Amino acid sequence: MIYLFYSKEIFLIKKEIDKVINDNDIDSLSINEYDLNTDTINNIIEDAETYSLFNDKKVIVVNNAYIFTAKKNNIEQNTDLLLKYFDNINPNTILIFNFTDSKLDEKRKLCKSIKDNLKYSFCPVCLRRNKFLLALICVLASVLGTKAQVTVD
Known about the structure:
Elements: E1 2-6, H1 10-23, E2 31-35, H2 41-49, E3 58-63, H3 79-87, E4 93-99, H4 109-117, E5 118-122, H5 131-143
Parallel strand pairs: 1-4, 1-5, 2-3, 3-4
Helix pairs in contact: 3-4
């Protein structure tokens, strides 16, 4: 299974990743984490193709997966290797890509390919941009007798 979570709100991404891990009963020994600013896709695919020693399934979390956006990662990535993996996915590996941005680069071949293999995509409304929700939070906080300080970027 392949998941892609993206949002400007990192805590929402982490919440969804935790949900996938909990829903699949994955223990911490079967979770591997990578960062595309420092790791290569080659290492990630190699890990994804191997089986877990401790569980039937394993989770690979790939942070800063800006290969799906117009942004550049710190190191050059071999996205063709990832495209090949999409054609022959290991059913015992849950691969979770995530990044903090608000949209995909729909023109990229990688984005078109992942839509065919994607299990779940997540892009919540950013609270900072929704002034109505911000005002509602402030009103509820005052009703409850607390203060809420909200800033808008």
